[in-house]
Amino acid sequence: MLGGSQLAHALAYRIAYPQAHVRMLRLLATGHAYFSWLPFALAVSSACVLVSLACAALDAARGRRAHAVPAPAFALLPPAAFALQEVLELSLHTGAFAWRAVLAPTFIPGLMLQLPVAVLVYVTARLLLRAAERIGRAFARPRLTLRPAALRAPAAAVVDALLSPGAALARAPPCVVVS
What we know:
Layout: H1 2-16, H2 20-29, H3 38-61, H4 71-94, H5 107-138, H6 148-151, H7 154-163
Helix pairs in contact: 1-4, 1-5, 3-5, 4-5
């Protein structure tokens, strides 16, 4: 979600301010100085994704299914995070609550870009989760499965066969001893 949100955020600024020098000045003027920390944040979130995929692979190797990726989270969280990010950026930069961030020329394009980027990220997450499950199943130990009849005692199987309704019809011919 973080990567998709930041991608849509960058695209919105590219749309609103096509000239690179104007865009950079605008970014610095609206509280985007934290961008120097963005690679670190993306690295930490990528590490979390890798650990999650490894856990999904281990679960698949143990015969458990991974939890489904909730589509509503991918549809609702990025727009909410984008709106909160825009307001917080300007609020922290100015020192007062900056509701006017929603009036910025980047807000509407950024908000509109959240859904297509979220769909792309959702599909990618589903594919990665499916790949992790397949990798986990490939490394799983083969299981021994016992049939229910093999678990019962032999005497119980004979009694069940004799008491079944078709037991009288399924009799074998008498055994002939030749000497």
